[in-house]
Design goal:
Keywords: Coiled coil. This is Glutamyl-tRNA reductase. The protein has two helices and no strands. It has about 100 residues and is mostly helical.
Length: about 100
């Protein structure tokens, strides 16, 4: 019975570790997305400069600004959520280690 319990706990620990690994990999991908957002920001800036002194300048500048702000907001929310999940999984693993 004791061996079965230990085996069950070990599987749970393995499952937690797999979830943690996946969350950490997701966190890495979200960090890489920040670089992509930076590239989008550069292109948006070039677009706004290209249409300078045209009738469309003000509208395009506003649209680009809003779009970038929304992308950054979503990225931040995702980063925060992944980080919280990683921390929760690490706490669960620490609890299992203490048993």
């Amino acid at each position: 019975m004791q061996n079965e319990r230990l085996s069950g706990e070990s599987e749970s620990a393995e499952a937690l570790q797999k979830r943690l690994d996946k969350m950490m990999a997701l966190g890495e991908r979200t960090r890489q997305q920040r670089v992509a957002i930076g590239a989008v920001e550069e292109v948006a800036d070039r677009l706004v400069k290209t249409v300078a002194q045209t009738d469309a300048h003000e509208r395009i500048a506003l649209e680009q600004s809003q779009m970038l702000a929304e992308m950054k907001r979503r990225q931040k929310r995702l980063d925060d959520r992944v980080q919280r999940n990683v921390e929760e999984l690490q706490k669960e693993m620490q609890k299992m280690d203490q048993m």
